[in-house]
């Protein structure tokens, strides 16, 4: 009888151990857009205008060394680096998400000819892609500019 009790106890222990070791690892919760945008500073990576790569265009050289910082409290800062735009885009700003976090509203624009309202194309832990229609004088037609920033 003791032998059967021992076998039953060992079997129960092994089954419990196997069951507990097979549990799925917990998946960390997905970060919110506020956490993603404010986790660290953003640096320019690339840009297109009407689908054409303009990353090497001398007219945008002044935004290529910008460092943009968003804080979770809705404040932010653009540091223009050595190449300063005219008019400047440097300084403090406020920001907020709009339209179910599909748009980013900033109190200051990132592009000298742009506004502060951007469509969010991508926002994750490593990449921020924004777009907006920009009027480049003297053209009366807006051009879709898509800018990619990375950590």
Task: Give a structural overview.
The protein has 151 residues and is α+β, with helices and mostly antiparallel strands. It has one domain: Beta Barrel (Lipocalin), CATH 2.40.128. Helices cover 20% and strands 37% of the residues. The protein has 3 helices and 9 strands. The protein has helices at 2-21, 33-38, 61-64, and strands at residues 42-49, 52-53, 67-70, 75-79, 91-98, 103-106, 117-123, 127-135, 142-150. Strands 1-3-4-5-6-7-8-9 form an 8-stranded antiparallel barrel. The radius of gyration is 25 Å and the shape is elongated. The chain starts with a helix and ends with a strand.
Task: Supply the key terms.
8-stranded antiparallel barrel, 3 helices, Lipocalin, alpha+beta, 151 residues, single chain
Give me the secondary-structure topology:
Layout lengths: L1 H20 L11 H6 L3 E8 L2 E2 L7 H4 L2 E4 L4 E5 L11 E8 L4 E4 L10 E7 L3 E9 L6 E9 L1
Antiparallel strand pairs: 1-2, 1-3, 1-9, 3-4, 4-5, 5-6, 6-7, 7-8, 8-9
Outline:
This protein has 151 residues and is of the alpha+beta class.
């Amino acid at each position: 009888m003791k032998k059967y009790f021992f076998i039953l106890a060992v079997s129960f222990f092994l089954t419990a151990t196997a069951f507990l070791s097979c549990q799925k690892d917990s998946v960390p919760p997905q970060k919110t857009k506020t956490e993603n945008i404010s986790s660290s500073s953003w640096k320019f990576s690339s840009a297109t205008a009407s689908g054409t790569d303009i990353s090497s265009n001398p007219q945008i050289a002044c935004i290529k060394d910008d460092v943009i910082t968003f804080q979770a409290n809705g404040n932010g800062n653009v540091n223009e680096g050595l190449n300063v735009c005219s008019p400047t885009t440097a300084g403090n700003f406020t920001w907020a998400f709009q339209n179910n976090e599909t748009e980013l509203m900033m109190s200051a624009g990132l592009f000298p000819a742009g506004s502060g309202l951007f469509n969010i194309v991508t926002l994750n832990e490593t990449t921020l892609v924004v777009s907006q229609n920009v009027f480049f004088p003297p053209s009366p037609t807006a051009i879709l500019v898509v800018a990619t920033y990375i950590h």
